[in-house]
Amino acid sequence: MHFKHPELLYALFLLIIPILIHLFQLRRFEKVTFTNVKFLQAVKLQTRKSSQIKKWITLFTRMLLLACIVLAFAQPFIPKTTAFNKAQETVIYLDNSFSMQAKGRNGSLFNEAVQDIINSIPETESISLYTNTETFRNTSLKTLKKDLIQLEFAPNQLSYEAAYLKGKQLFLDQGDTSKHLILVSDFQQQAKALQFEADSTVQVTLVQPQINDRSNISIDSVYISNTSAETIDLTVTLSNQNTPVDNVSVALYNDDILSSKSAIALDKEAEVIFTMPYNEEINGRLSIEDSGLEFDNSFYFNINAKPKIKVLAINEDAEDAFLKRIYTNDEFDYQSAALDRLNYKLILDQNLIVLNELSSIPKALSEALINFTKNSGKLLIIPKDEININSYNQLLKNTNLNPYTPIKKQDKRITKIHYSHPLLKNTFYNKVSNFQYPKVEHTQQFTSNSGAVLSYEDGTAFLMGNSENYVFASPLNLSNSNFKNSQLIVPVLYNIGLQSLNLSKLFYTIGEANSIAIPTSIGQDEILTLADTKSAVIPLQKTYSKTVVLETGAFPNTAGILEVKNKNKVIQKLSFNYDRAESQLNYYDLNALENVSLASRLETTINNIKSQANVNALWKWFVIFALAFLIIEMLLLKYLK
């Protein structure tokens, strides 16, 4: 037993006083005169003995009464733990990542934790609290309460190891204190195994709230699955974390105007395809209705206005009128240059370069074209009838195309269309099995026929490519082939030109280190800004002659469509989305962990910490005993004869 005010126990020495008084009173006798003492002898002896017993009992009762009063004022108690006399210091990590939007007993897991803090911690008590984005050190709940209520979900989550180490750093250097680190999270599975270092100075408690509903449907990604002269097919991928759903509605908005809507049955994964006009500028937002996590119910993307596709034809003796008829001014910026008068500075500025029947490819041109393809440029090679095969093969090998063999064939028909090739996919409504087969008189042969787009009747390739660069096996001049007059030339060459334009990415992911090339030229003192409806920032940027590369990191932190501006002029729009990793509702099993305590409610954990500093107070019992002894004394004096 311990005492809150042990110095008051010295008052027990005062109990000597009633003892002394009582002893003196026992020696004092009162003489009473009687006529005949003979008859009172026995009564007198009996009365004196009874009186002494009564006085001793009364003395004992009074001493107990006074002792209980003194002990009550000293406030005795029995501690519940050995750490009752240590100062308590509590640090709380509150996970505010998007996965904490999952539904618990009363609303989201995050809101449950916030309410437990508000309801369980006294307003004047000192605590330290931190989230993935905010840190509040050595403050009181009264000061923290407003900020706590206004906390928002964050797109980036600390690793659990980093959260543990940061929490240890927030403890104050106050000597011998009882340190409690509480990590509140759903403990969603991450790449690394979950473990915490043993530290005897810190008591770690992991609070993993109970999740009532693990169902969640998310929009995971968007990509362009097909491009034609008139339309773009936009494919949307969705995933489901629980039981299959018969009807999931997916809405497509363009500038907040509903553009299209589709409904699908969703088991685990599914795709939805929206078809949109090719030349339309789209500031898109995809939306679903789902009662699970909220952050992955929307997905932003944008398709900017498409510039004219730059095509450069390098000719020697061959005419290029057929190229001019295909690459018209409404969609293409077509230029033609003779090989002997070629300005090499034009090459890197093009989207597509056509080598139109050159007898040989000069080494300087070959090196320039290799560098051009490495910078996302596209190449189309049409050989001459008589060529320097070595100069061609050097370029073909360096552009991932199959080289020519020295063998030369004659009189072939083009009979096979490879409809599954990316160049021709969805180009034809129906597969044509009987058409007027184009002919060639002289043709080269490739070392391999893989990647063929069009083939001869013997299976060898007439046109092959790898979705980036393409090469014909034969010249296209009318003296060698009637392919120019075929119905195939327009869709083939047009699609090669169309796909040579590298469309800007549909979206970027928040939190990743993105390098975004903006095709623009700015002055020496000019800068580009990223702006939304509320704010604008100046990102890190590198300026080149015809592009500005923006580096994004900490900004933006909110999903949406941002404008790239040069002063007040909007150059381009960029879409940013939250990382979908937290859409997967998979959690760690904490029971196997060592060196930590586990709980499912933050309120319970806080109350347990309080109880370690609590004691069983006994002063009330001593007050009750004092009253009891007072009553006993009164009864003794009144009824004991």
UniProtKB/TrEMBL annotation:
Ranges annotated as spanning the membrane: 6-24, 56-78, 618-637
Q: Which SUPFAM superfamilies match?
A: Class I glutamine amidotransferase-like
InterPro entries attached to this UniProt entry: Aerotolerance_reg_N, Class_I_gatase-like, Double_TM_dom
Name of the protein described by the UniProt record: BatA domain-containing protein
Q: Which residues form a coiled coil?
A: none
PANTHER family the record matches? BLL2463 PROTEIN
Q: Which UniProt keywords apply?
A: Membrane, Transmembrane, Transmembrane helix
Aerotolerance regulator N-terminal domain location:
1-76
Species this chain originates from: Winogradskyella rapida
The reply on keyword Membrane is yes
Pfam families under this entry?
BatA (PF07584)
